[in-house]
Specification:
- With 403 residues, the chain is an alpha+beta fold.
- The protein is built from ten helices and 17 strands.
- The strands form four sheets. It has an eight-stranded mixed β-sheet with strand order 1-2-8-3-9-16-10-15, covered by helices on one side. Strands 12-13-11-14 form a four-stranded antiparallel β-sheet.
- Helix 3 packs across helix 10.
C-alpha cells in the first residue's frame, strides 16, 4: 500500500478524543484504529507487535547491523475535539493551481487563499483536503502513515543499514493524555522523534508549558420578577471572570514565544456555568504567573459573591522539553542532516502547542518533533500536500540510515 492510500485509510476511521470521559483511551473508537494498526504491523512482519488495554500500539523493526542506537518514532491516533472527525470525506486536488478550493458546493464552503495564503507554497502539488464538514486528520494520521511507510520501505531495502527501530502509536494526545500510560521502559529507545509537526521542514524541541483549567460558577436562581438582591446569575459571574483576564493574551493576539489564556468551551445556566480553558507559555516563570493570576481572580470573585461561588480545577499537562533535549543536541543535528539530505531546509522553531514528546522527554525519552506535513490542523480547512508526507517518510529513513 502506498503512503497516500495508507493515510486515506487511517483518516476514514473515526478517532476523536474526549476530555470528559476519564477513561483511557478517552473514546472506544480509538481502539478501532489501534486494532487496525496492530494487525497491519503484524502482517508486515514486524516483531514485538503489541496493543495494550489502553490502546497503545508498539512494534519493532530489528537491527540489520551492529553498534547503532535504538531509535523510536511516535505518532498519535486520535484527532482533536475542536472539529468533527466522524465520516471524513477526503479527496485529492491534483496539480493544485493556486486558486481558492471549493470544498463543498452544497454548503458553499471554500478554502480561500486570502485567508490561508500558506497553501500557495504548494502550487503544482497534489493536496488532500476535506469536504469542509470535518477536519482531515493529518494531525496526526499523516505521522502514523509516514512511520509505517518508512518501516515498510526499510524492510524492502535491507541494503540500508540501521539499528533497532521502535515505533509507538498513542491515544489521547489531543487532550494532553497521550503519555499517561506510555511505558518508556518497555519501549526501550535511547531517544525518539514524534512525527507530529506541521509544514514541511519544521523541527521543534521547544514547546509550551501547558495547563488545563475548568472554572465552575455557582449562582442562585429565583423567578426574575422577584430577583432583586436574591438572584446571582452564574453566567454573569463567569463573564466577570473572562473580563478580568488580559484581553490581548489570547491565541488571536499572540505569536512566537508569547503565551495565552484560551477559552475552549462554555456551558451555562443561571445556576451553574463552567468555563474550560487551556493556559500556555514557553517561559516556565511566566507560566506559573499565569496560573497565579487565575487563582487571584477566583479569590476576588469568591470574596465578592461568597466563598464557594467559584471553584477552580487547574492541572498541569506538560512542560517545555527544551531543558531535556538541549543536553543531547546531537538528536537535533541528526534530524537536520536527515532533512538536508532529503532536500529540505530545516525550520527550527518553537511549537505553539505540545506533543507526546514533551512529556516523554521528562521521563527518560528525549523526543523532539518533526513535521508531518499538514496545515490548518484542528480545522475543517485542514489539508495535506502529498509531497510533504512523502518527504517526512524520507526523513525517517534518513535518520535511521545516518544514525
Amino acid at each position: 500500500m502506498n503512503i497516500t492510500d495508507r493515510f486515506l485509510k487511517y483518516v476514514s476511521i473515526w478517532t476523536t478524543s474526549d476530555d470528559t470521559t476519564g477513561t483511557t483511551p478517552s473514546t472506544a473508537r480509538q481502539m478501532d484504529l489501534a486494532r487496525y494498526l496492530r494487525d497491519e504491523l503484524t502482517q508486515m512482519g514486524l516483531e514485538e507487535v503489541t496493543m495494550d488495554e489502553n490502546g497503545y500500539v508498539m512494534a519493532t523493526l530489528p537491527a540489520n547491523t551492529e553498534g547503532k542506537p535504538v531509535i523510536g518514532f511516535i505518532a498519535h491516533m486520535d484527532t482533536a475535539p475542536d472539529a468533527s472527525g466522524e465520516n471524513v470525506k477526503a479527496r485529492i486536488v491534483s496539480n493544485y493551481d493556486g486558486k481558492d478550493i471549493l470544498l463543498n458546493e452544497k454548503e458553499n464552503i471554500v478554502l480561500e487563499t486570502a485567508k490561508y495564503p500558506e497553501i500557495l507554497n504548494y502550487v503544482g502539488q497534489d493536496i488532500i483536503v476535506t469536504d469542509g464538514t470535518t477536519l482531515l486528520g493529518a494531525d496526526d494520521k499523516a505521522g502514523v502513515a509516514e512511520i509505517v511507510s518508512a518501516v515498510e520501505y526499510l524492510m524492502a531495502h535491507p541494503e540500508i543499514k540501521h539499528g533497532k527501530v521502535r515505533i509507538g502509536f498513542t491515544p489521547d494526545e489531543e487532550i494532553g493524555e497521550g503519555p499517561d500510560h506510555f511505558d518508556v521502559q518497555k519501549f526501550g529507545a535511547e531517544f525518539g522523534y514524534t512525527m507530529d509537526g506541521g509544514a514541511i521542514g519544521e523541527l521543534e524541541f521547544e514547546n509550551f508549558n501547558a495547563a488545563g483549567m475548568k472554572v465552575r460558577f455557582h449562582g442562585v436562581n429565583v423567578h426574575p420578577g422577584y430577583g432583586y438582591k436574591k438572584m446571582h446569575n452564574s453566567q454573569l459571574i463567569a463573564n466577570r471572570f473572562v473580563s478580568m483576564l488580559p484581553a490581548d493574551e489570547t491565541p488571536a493576539h499572540t505569536r512566537g514565544y508569547e503565551g495565552f489564556y484560551h477559552l475552549i468551551g462554555m456551558q451555562g445556566s443561571v445556576e451553574n456555568t463552567t468555563l474550560s480553558y487551556i493556559i500556555r507559555d514557553h517561559d516556565r516563570a511566566r507560566f506559573e504567573q499565569r496560573k497565579a493570576t487565575v487563582q487571584r481572580i477566583v479569590e476576588v470573585l469568591n470574596m465578592e459573591y461568597g466563598e464557594g461561588t467559584v471553584e477552580l480545577e487547574l492541572k498541569d499537562q506538560y512542560y517545555n522539553m527544551r531543558e531535556m533535549v538541549e543536553p543531547k543536541m546531537f538528536i537535533i543535528d541528526l534530524a537536520k542532516k536527515a532533512m538536508l539530505e532529503a532536500g529540505i531546509t530545516p525550520k527550527v522553531q518553537p511549537i505553539r502547542g505540545g506533543t507526546d514528546g514533551a512529556r516523554l522527554s521528562f521521563v527518560g525519552l528525549p523526543c523532539p518533533n518533526i513535521f508531518a506535513g499538514g496545515e490548518n490542523f484542528h480545522s475543517r480547512f485542514e489539508y495535506l500536500p502529498i509531497p510533504s508526507m512523502q518527504k517526512a517518510m524520507e526523513v525517517v529513513v534518513n535518520i535511521l540510515r545516518l544514525a
